[in-house]
Design a protein that fits this description.
single chain; 2 domains; 440 residues; 2-enoyl-CoA Hydratase, Chain A, domain 1; globular; alpha+beta
Length: 440
């Protein structure tokens, strides 16, 4: 039996509901207002403090104030104050160098280095046709000084930056070189002057290993990567390889856009790169087109597989396109945008966390592998210095075995008598520099 509600009661209920709505709206609005006021007050306090410091310095400081350097320092301090390792400020000059470092051709000397145990710079690769190659630098050279300044008195980052410069400028390198002849090793110090110039950036190397397996190493995802990758794939396809091993160890990441264009070659029409912003909203940034490489695939990763390379690995695993071999990745899943400023400088800012197809992020946790294979410290050191052959590399050989489990008809299967295992000849400069390695 239905009950009737009087007109007066209905009106009263409507008024109560309206009052509650107004109250909630007011409470929310006041909350937002208070947040805004607090934000304004905090900003005012920051400006007031900075103004007071500026006044005191200009009143009493005995030195000369460089206005450009001061402004750059203030901006750098602001970004450092965020406490985020991914947030940083680049002066106009450094931003220009950054843009150069991401182009197909770079300006510099053309070497990849690591910091050795003594704090000096060890050359682990001299890029072909680079200024360093023309000046006679060799793999294994140790850089002791840069334009007369001892490397050990600089931070590694400062030392790497000193290799930067414009076309036509020079840098004097103080080198330590070991030479072995007739079983005897001699150590010599020498100075080499290198003239900075443009050189071709090499981020992809490839070869045929284990008889008929295609091996591709990608050191980072930059402007030249896609073209070099397609060239490598075409060469390996012509050789009718039975499967592919993609080596992303010591991959420092790079451009997610370039990474997505490479990954597009392996996957059908799916989302490739997604991220969650500060409010948790997930945005699909890049998707693949239909069409894919139909070969068994193993991807080798490790703790030095960063950023965009981790997205590559996660997608291969999540879409069940191949197997991940090696060790868990670095877990650097923050989306960092480079934002130009009006004066030619720029800031790098963390704006989101990359997400996998289940909506979860790998930031801080990494991407797990399907087959965990550890390496000895000696093997890791050899890999870092590009002195570990694919035959001696347990992770690469495990990746080949994983191809067999995916149906690949591999000629030389690890751990069997299917033939003498031989390393293939690389068709490009050796890839996979460490994230601790620098290319200049």
């Amino acid at each position: 039996m239905s009950k009737k509600v009087s007109l007066g009661a209905a009106a009263a209920m409507s008024l109560v509901a309206a009052a509650i709505t107004v109250s909630l709206t007011y409470t929310f609005a006041m909350g937002r207002f208070n947040e805004k006021v607090a934000d304004v007050n905090e900003r005012q306090a920051m400006y007031t403090k900075l103004s007071e410091i500026d006044q005191k310095v200009r009143q009493d400081y005995i030195g000369k104030i460089g206005e450009t350097e001061l402004n750059d320092g203030i901006a750098a301090g602001y970004m450092a104050g965020l406490g985020d390792s991914g947030a940083k400020y680049l002066s106009a000059e450094k931003y220009k160098n950054y843009l150069s470092s991401t182009s197909k051709k770079a300006v510099g000397v053309g070497i990849r280095t690591i910091q050795d145990a003594d704090g000096n710079m060890e050359v682990i690769e001299v890029l072909p046709n680079s200024p360093a190659s023309k000046a006679g630098l060799q793999k294994g050279d140790v850089i002791l000084s840069l334009d007369g300044k001892e490397v050990i008195r600089l931070s590694y980052g400062e030392a790497v930056n000193k290799l930067d410069g414009t076309v036509g400028t020079t840098v004097k390198l103080g080198l330590l070189r070991k030479t072995t002849a007739d079983g005897k090793t001699t150590t010599n110090k020498m100075d080499v002057t290198v003239t900075r110039a443009e050189y071709q950036r090499v981020t992809v190397s490839s070869s045929v290993i284990n008889g008929n397996v295609g091996y591709i190493a990608i050191s980072e995802f930059q402007s030249s990567t896609k073209d070099q990758f397609v060239s490598a794939i075409n060469t390996l396809t012509e050789k009718k390889v039975a499967g592919l091993v993609i080596d992303l160890r010591n991959n420092s990441g790079g451009s997610e856009e370039v990474m997505a264009s490479v990954l597009d070659e392996f996957l059908p029409a799916v989302s490739l790169v997604s991220y969650a912003d500060r409010n948790g909203k997930i945005t699909v940034e890049y998707s693949s087109k239909s069409g894919e490489i139909n070969l068994p695939i193993s991807v080798v990763v490790g703790s030095s597989t960063y950023g965009a390379a981790e997205i590559f690995a996660a997608d291969i695993k999540d879409y069940k396109k191949g197997k991940l071999i090696g060790e868990k990745t670095a877990g650097h899943g923050t989306k960092e945008d480079m934002i130009p400023l009006s004066d030619g400088s720029a800031i790098q800012l963390s704006v989101g966390n990359y997400t996998r197809i289940d909506g979860k992020t790998f930031n801080g946790v990494g991407v797990d592998v399907d087959m965990a294979i550890e390496m000895t410290q000696e093997q890791k050191d050899l890999l870092l210095r590009r002195s570990l052959t694919t035959l001696e590399d347990p992770q690469i050989q495990a990746a080949v075995t994983a191809l067999v489990t995916q149906g690949a008809d591999v000629q030389q299967i690890p751990g069997t008598d299917s033939g003498n295992l031989e390393d293939g000849a690389s068709s490009a400069a050796s890839g996979s520099p460490s994230s601790a390695a620098a290319s200049k």
